Amino acid sequence: MTPAERLSQPLKLPNGSTLPNRFAKSAMSETLGTIDNHPTKELATLYRAWAEGGTGLSITGNVMIDRRHIGEPQNVVVEDESDLELLSAWAQAGQVGGQQIWVQLNHPGKQSPKILNRDPVSPSAIPFKKELRGMFATPRALTGPEIEDIIQRFARSAAVAQKAGFDGVQIHGAHGYLVSQFLSPHHNQRTDEWGGSAANRRRFVLAVYRAIREACGDGFNIGIKLNSADFQRGGFTEEESLAVIEALVAEGIDLIEISGGNYENPAMARGAENGEVKASTQAREAYFLEFAEKVRQLTAVPLMVTGGFRTESGMADAIASGATDLVGLARPLVVEPDLPNRIMKGEQVTSAVRPIKTGIRLIDDMALMEVSWYTRQIARIAKGKTPKQHDRGLLSLMEVIGVMTTRGVRTRLRAG
């Protein structure tokens, strides 16, 4: 097969649902909600652009399940049916051309900045490393009833997404957010049924999955984004990740997306372009293919690998190898929303994505500029504009800081 033919193949999921091709947009936090966290018409414009560009599955970014706990200013929060009309428009836009759109459901846990939340929660009261304590408060440990409430919030938000017409949901279990915090022995040092052993630490994610499945039924797509590892001393390991995957597969999960890292070690935002992965990984483009191959030895569950894909040949080779079933793309689809269509028409492409550096070590180590600059390009697409393909260095950084600070202050003033 040519790359175009291989990447154009449909993919049938365990529940019978079929994705039209092998391109998937991985979740990126759009921060296009209102200041009080409602969806906007811009989200429909954005996801229509990706659907029209050929992306078979689009996964939304960071839809929060609790208005009291958000990760960034202007996150969308879904707690009830009050925004059903706007949510439905968003879903319909992402389905143009027969594509699918899933809602990523998330709770930030301790990864909620001080400017938004002075009382963050986590499995245990473990602070961030000292370099980040100026940005994030030390969380308090969740109580048992609070944990049960959060589980039901995931299910309630999923049911609203289903009613709005979305094709599925993805549980955000990666990148150091709450589900990931429960899985990690570093962040979760509880001694009750929700912590301690690896089996107890994965009890929370299994409870979330079961609650969503009960609320939405067997025909609704449910996936998860999961770290291969935290890449943090005393954190979540590859062995533990494989055990979580086996448990979720036994429960009937439809799709597993593999990623890695957290705010303290953001492997998800650092690229091969920055020289942070070994040569063999750079040759294969995707960062987490080796781990995906270990997963494939355990199960035939559909897999999505995100991070590092830059050429049509690299994408097609990953599918042909059997290591992954979907090519997860994030930044490439921000600078070139029509990239899947171009590949499926037979073009040879190399993504226009380039590393972004400010020269400020703390900013660069946390990949803040990478995340923030692409968020600004997402906003351009949402306004019907063409995204830029290259940054303006420190000028872009100052623009991003100004926008995020203003949004954070407005959010706090409204809440307080």
From TrEMBL:
Coiled-coil annotated spans: none
Domain (NADH:flavin oxidoreductase/NADH oxidase N-terminal): residue spans on this chain: 7-346
Endpoints of the signal sequence: none
Keywords: Flavoprotein, Oxidoreductase
Keyword Methyltransferase: no
Cited Pfam families: Oxidored_FMN (PF00724)
Tagged with keyword Flavoprotein: yes
Region annotated Disordered, chain positions: 1-20
GO MF, any single term: oxidoreductase activity
InterPro entries: Aldolase_TIM, NADH_flavin_oxidoreductase, OxRdtase_FMN_N
Entries under PANTHER family matching the protein: BINDING OXIDOREDUCTASE, PUTATIVE (AFU_ORTHOLOGUE AFUA_2G08260)-RELATED
Official protein name in the record: Old Yellow Enzyme family NADH:flavin oxidoreductase
Lineage: Bacteria, Pseudomonadati, Pseudomonadota, Gammaproteobacteria, Pseudomonadales
